[in-house]
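Please fill in the sequence for the structure shown.

STRUCTURE ENCODING:
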């Protein structure tokens, strides 16, 4: 059903009114309702969820698999999987994501950079078939299609 999602699992919390200075690393899930000055980075190689509540504020880089932002961020944001921007989110910095959900009212002052999946592997060459020269094909200018079906009449011909 639309709007109904499983809530991210959170094991640690930086509560409202709490201030943390310096870089923070976490495992599994972290919710920030206070203020963090420094980077907030999930341990690599493990699933992670970072939730920035409406009263949460981070001055630094953010990196996790699943990032939910309802507060204020000043710095780059990288969501390896899903980035959710709630209506009260304010992000000042570049944002990288694989999948983005953004509610009306969320503000981003920076570049949105989707993390595209890598291109498929080169096609295999079968006997008797040689793929076209990709370097030569890249240099060729595109040709605009025309709708002319009949050749132009020869002006020197009478009939």
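FILLED IN BY: designer on duty
SEQUENCE:
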């Amino acid at each position: 059903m639309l709007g109904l999602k499983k809530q991210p699992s959170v094991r640690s919390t930086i509560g409202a009114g709490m201030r943390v200075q310096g870089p923070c690393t976490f495992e599994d899930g972290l919710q920030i309702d206070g203020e963090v000055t420094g980077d907030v980075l999930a341990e690599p190689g493990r699933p992670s969820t970072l939730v920035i509540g409406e009263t949460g504020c981070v001055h630094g880089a953010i990196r996790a698999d699943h990032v939910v932002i309802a507060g204020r961020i000043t710095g780059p944001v990288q969501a390896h999987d899903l980035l959710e921007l709630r209506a009260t989110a304010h992000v000042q910095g570049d944002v990288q994501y694989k999948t983005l959900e953004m509610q009306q009212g969320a503000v981003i002052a920076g570049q949105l950079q989707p993390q595209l999946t890598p291109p498929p592997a080169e096609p295999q060459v079968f006997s008797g078939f040689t793929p076209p020269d990709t370097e030569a094909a890249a240099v060729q200018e595109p040709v605009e299609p025309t709708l002319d079906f009949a050749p132009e009449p020869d002006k020197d011909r009478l009939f």
